[in-house]
Amino acid sequence: MTQVDVLIVGAGPAGYMLANALSHFGISKVLIIDKRDKRVSAGQADGIQPRTIEIFQGYGLAQRLLAEANYMCMAAMYNPDPNGGGIRCTERLPDITAPDARWPHELTLHQGGIEAIFVDSMRSRGLEVRFSTTVAEMELDQSLVGDPSAHAVKAKLVTTGTDGDQQETQMVQAKFAVGCDGAHSWVRRWMGHEMEGEQTDIIWGVMDGKPQTDFPDWRCKSPVHSEHGSCVVLPRENNSLRLYIQLDSSKGGGGEPGGRVDRSKYRLEDIQESAKQILRPYHITYPEIDWWTIYVIGQRVASAYSKSSRVFIAGDACHTHSPKAGQGANSSMGDTHNLAWKLFLTLKGLSTCHETLLGTYELERRKFAQDLIDFDKEFSSLVSGKPLSETHPEGVSHEKFVEAFTKFGSFSSGIGIRYEAYASGENVLLVPPTVEEQSLAKHVCVGQRVPTSIVIKAGDGRPMELHDTMPTNGSFRVLIWAGDVVEEPKALEAVKVASSVLSGSVKAHTPKGQAMDSVIDILTISTSKTETQFLQYLPLELRLGGDMRGWEKVYCDQPAYGGRTREQIGGKAFEHFGIAKDQGAIIVVRPDGHVSLITSIASPEKVRDYFGRFLKRFT
Amino acid sequence: MTQVDVLIVGAGPAGYMLANALSHFGISKVLIIDKRDKRVSAGQADGIQPRTIEIFQGYGLAQRLLAEANYMCMAAMYNPDPNGGGIRCTERLPDITAPDARWPHELTLHQGGIEAIFVDSMRSRGLEVRFSTTVAEMELDQSLVGDPSAHAVKAKLVTTGTDGDQQETQMVQAKFAVGCDGAHSWVRRWMGHEMEGEQTDIIWGVMDGKPQTDFPDWRCKSPVHSEHGSCVVLPRENNSLRLYIQLDSSKGGGGEPGGRVDRSKYRLEDIQESAKQILRPYHITYPEIDWWTIYVIGQRVASAYSKSSRVFIAGDACHTHSPKAGQGANSSMGDTHNLAWKLFLTLKGLSTCHETLLGTYELERRKFAQDLIDFDKEFSSLVSGKPLSETHPEGVSHEKFVEAFTKFGSFSSGIGIRYEAYASGENVLLVPPTVEEQSLAKHVCVGQRVPTSIVIKAGDGRPMELHDTMPTNGSFRVLIWAGDVVEEPKALEAVKVASSVLSGSVKAHTPKGQAMDSVIDILTISTSKTETQFLQYLPLELRLGGDMRGWEKVYCDQPAYGGRTREQIGGKAFEHFGIAKDQGAIIVVRPDGHVSLITSIASPEKVRDYFGRFLKRFT
Predict the structure, then answer these.
(1) Among A236, A242, A300, A477, the one annotated catalytic
(2) Distance between CA atoms of residues B325 and B318, nearest Å
(3) What are the strands of the beta sheet with A284-302, ordered from one edge?
(4) pLDDT tier at B174 (50, 70, 90 boundaries)?
(5) What pLDDT digit, counting tens, does each position of B499-539 carry?
(6) Confidence (pLDDT) at A41
(7) Its domain of life (chains A, B) (predicted)?
């Protein structure tokens, strides 16, 4: 009987994100299986939103993504030419929906390219996907669910040999299992949860390839409303292009009462013929087609996300929606990025209340999925809608579309995703701030991802993104925003008091023999200047208790040395966070980058109490 | 008999840069040999200057360098404490010597780490170093030197087997050979060239390791002048540290008339004991030593760099100097970065005058080496000098040292390196500008590396470093700085005329069947706005003659869309280059990034004539 910590069913974006994150955190007993005999190499989900790029960066994977993907920075809106003869460009505008993001634009890269980044990262730690493998049976021993170290899940796996005939079965015991097995999830059906919501009769075709075209804006995201239907033109890596094309649903039996559109009635030629009609007067041909498919828009979310907080579902197994807002892979990877560190804390025995902790996964991500569906319904109908005209006075006007496009930007970018901090304390991980606390860090929201800004490393003057000082490694961060401890005795005194309380928490929650920044990592950002050797003023506790690596824990909010003077960087972190330089603040950030709490530098006890609520004490 | 295009003797920084560049340009018949049985894994040259980072970026190698190296951004100057008791910090200041550089700071990474980047890059194209191999004999057939395609060099190579006994010999014929075989170069001796200059009796020890220390500025470049001698503290990757320590030369017989200091008289303990004395009152111990050595400062340059422009030397084979200005690996890699594209043009049969073309290598790089020696003499004596005090009124004052440190910055950073554009036309690759031409691009210098600035890609709104639009691939760039071709009919007309002449040059010098940007690549930077679809206004010639990849050749000088508003980027390229928006300019850039000529947008004939001087015509 093989024993693992986590069994992951399905190697798509959700499964890969989870497997990679767990192995990155040092959880070595992970088994990830997939029913396909190799990984996807073309097409499928491909839009990477700004927050997802930041998440990749946290795991050290963004550089390759940024090098291989196409940047999508501009949008061009096309509508019927009032003079007839087809479409024309109404407006070109930034496709920038998240000005606060570190990378404020979308990226496009085929799903195989995205997955290859995970595959190589996992391989460097010895983790590989077991392909051609499915779950045949699963059992959950309810008597064991209270013990996080128990192997409560039993699964029978079946692996098909390369010739397709031979089958091998294996019994596996897992502490936790996660179904990342897509819209038709076996794990979801095993749990008995339903998909709630509707199937529409709106049908779209999607096609990837290298085109020959005179369409002027083929390097912009171009939503096209024409008299012959709608399409979205999406630029892709390596000068390829994706087209989303609305098809005539009547051909597949749409519009009939109670009927369902039959996808099998449509062929590649239907997509190509529609594209030709919609894009007139421009021409497009596809000498090379990489991938194509037909889909009917459905907007549904699973009734629950877990069974006893031991078996979970994530990604398409939880929610389906239209792909046109570029949300598919992003929401799936967001699910397991949220779940991974909670499993990590549980498996490492760091938490006192694993069921409560793991319960926040559904609390946070199911609410997000419902918001996403609501957003998608509204946005999809605008994309699919007929253009406004004399014959269609109820149609979609250019102004209405641009308004929606902009309004939904913050949400669809992922930057605006905010988990609710219930005043009732329902979510143990998020503490709603008082009015006074919120005023200490005006631009920071509990439940949202923490902003970033360029700060200067005190020890060597190196400019760094604040996000890069907090790589995703499973630890919480306490950011102390301090005044000028060199010039202001009061500021120094406040930091000394806070550091004494906080280092008490660090010591209490760190298992013996582990690095002092492995569970709670204290970073200080000060208004002092690097020129003053101010590192020497700070209490040793803020520098890993005197460990020589501790110099990397202290930053200054000042402009970067030198650099091209025309592009001054640094010196705006306090301002960007909305923190007064003479007041300071403490901000706690979860391992997934979301803000837990905001409080005053004079109230370090609030931070101590926060961690005491769910982290185990070792002293 | 094996035939190769280029035989490279020696796999150090110079040899690796050359081998990698040639294979990157598509020269597949390269043989690189080294006498050692494996590559260096610790110590040795390790400082990477700002221009070298830019060069790595040109070959697509900077990301890994930036990820693995230590950033050195700050300097701390130490001098004797006037109150006695040892040294104290006099000043902390930016170690930023090249504010115009894309990365304005130094990097440190051990030589094995630098070389590994080349090794992996070369391996991806099937090129590996042949280790344990030396040249035993070499012959140059003078009757063949006029024919660039002839294998004029014959060499006998000897490879030693792994047991050290077996030897295998091989005869190799090469079109060109380059000795990158260090200060004791076999190739240089074979050519019969002398090293000219002096050996000093100043002796230094250098030591790499992971220290335990209370020295406060161990993450800054810290030159220390003490009553017990001088040292330089250099932070390194992975929290390690390098110390350069001046040793007592009398121990090795220095100071005797005509005597030479004997390095063998010194041991690791001498370095450690000196460090202890110099750094008082601070303490330092080295629980781990990675590497150490002793060297005597010599400042010499070879009398010539080639034999008949068929056999060359580069790197330490050409010049030796003290390592304290962090120039070693940089000047060596700079040599072969300069030579590589000239060999490439010759080997691809693109040049009409290969001897003149290859002759510019010595013309440019020997002059640079001489300047470097002059610089090094002055700087070394300041670093080695006794501190100013009552007993040493002739000593080095803090003010004098800081002044020299700053003055030499631009040169030592590599950004300030400027090859001379002789009015006599002695250097066919550089055209001295007239006063009027210089006024068109006030901040651009012929012979210096072209500046960079952020520009916006017209087709998709993506912000890019101008340097990144000109990756090092062997082609020349013609930068057309155009006015607003959408709003200004005159600006459009000027671009139309220029594009017609320039595209004539492109067609003439591009061999049949090759991409139209493979020899001369035209890029346009305009003051027009991306929102206007101005791409459509430009003549097709400026977009690769209508090839769909041509959209990547056109840029706008405007602020980037969105982005964190606190750090506006883009929109300052004309200003940074000193080009008037209503006037424009044409700038030609060589494949190594150095500026060839500056002229008016109304004088494209000057560009045509420039290329006509050394590039072959194919039509």
Answers:
(1) A236
(2) 18
(3) A87-94, A74-80, A222-226, A229-235, A241-246, A195-213, A284-302, A319-320
(4) very high
(5) 999 999 999 999 999 999 999 999 999 999 988 877 888 88
(6) 64
(7) Eukaryota
Show which residues of B are catalytic.
46, 236, 244, 323
pLDDT digits (tens, 9 = 90+) for B214-240: 999 999 999 999 999 899 999 999 999
CA distances from A27 to A12, A248, A314, A347, B211 (A): 20, 49, 19, 8, 32
pLDDT tens column, A246-267: 888 888 777 665 557 788 889 9
Q: Do A562 and B63 touch (CB under 8 A)?
A: no
What is the number of residues in chain A? Answer: 619
Residues of A in contact with B283 (CB under 8 A): none
Give the span between the Cα atoms of A429 and B246, in whole angstroms. Answer: 57
- Tell me which residue of B29, B17, B23 sits closest to B315, measured CA to CA: B17
Over residues B568-591, the mean pLDDT reads 93
Residue with tokens 């760091």: A350
B543 vs B46 pLDDT, higher one: B543
* Summary count for chain A: helices (H), strands (E): 14, 25
* Whole-angstrom distance, CA of residue B462 vs CA of residue A72: 7
Please give the mean pLDDT across all residues of chain A: 91
Residue B104: list chain A partners with CB under 8 A: 561-564
B373, two tokens: 């020696």
A133-140/A70-72 β-pairing? unpaired
- Per-residue pLDDT tens digits for B386-423: 777 777 777 778 787 777 777 677 678 899 899 999 99
Min distance B111 CA to chain A CA atoms (Å): 22
Helix (H, G, I), strand (E, B) or coil at A295: strand
Q: Is position A419 annotated as part of the catalytic site?
A: no
**Residue B107: beta bridge partners?**
B48, B71
- The model's pLDDT over B431-473, given as tens digits with 9 standing for 90+, comes to 999 999 999 999 999 999 999 999 999 999 999 999 999 999 9
Cβ burial of B154 (10 Å; 0-12, 13-18, 19+) is middle
Closest chain A residue to the Cα of B562, Cα to Cα: A99
ipTM of the complex: 0.91
Under 8 Å between Cβ of B174 and B7: yes
Domains along chain B? 2-69+106-194+301-372 (3.50.50.60), 435-612 (3.40.30.20)
- Which of B95, B70, B138 is CA-nearest to residue B402? B95
pLDDT above 60 for A566: no
User: CA angle, corner B266, sides to B262 and B270, nearest 5?
Assistant: 145
- Confidence class for position B182, pLDDT limits 50, 70, 90: very high
Instruction: List Cβ neighbours of A493 (8 Å cut-off, separation of 6 or more).
Output: none
Range list of H helices, B152-311:
186-191, 268-279
10 Å CB burial of residue A60 (0-12, 13-18, 19+) is: middle
DSSP 8-state class, residue B41 = -
Average pLDDT over residues A535-559: 89
What element of type H or E holds A146? none
Measure B461 CA to nearest chain A CA, in Å.
Answer: 5
For residue B201, what pLDDT band results from cuts at 50, 70 and 90? confident
- Strands B167-179 vs B311-313: parallel, antiparallel or unpaired: parallel
For chains A and B, CB pairs below 8 A equal 140
Q: Do A104 and B71 touch (CB under 8 A)?
A: no
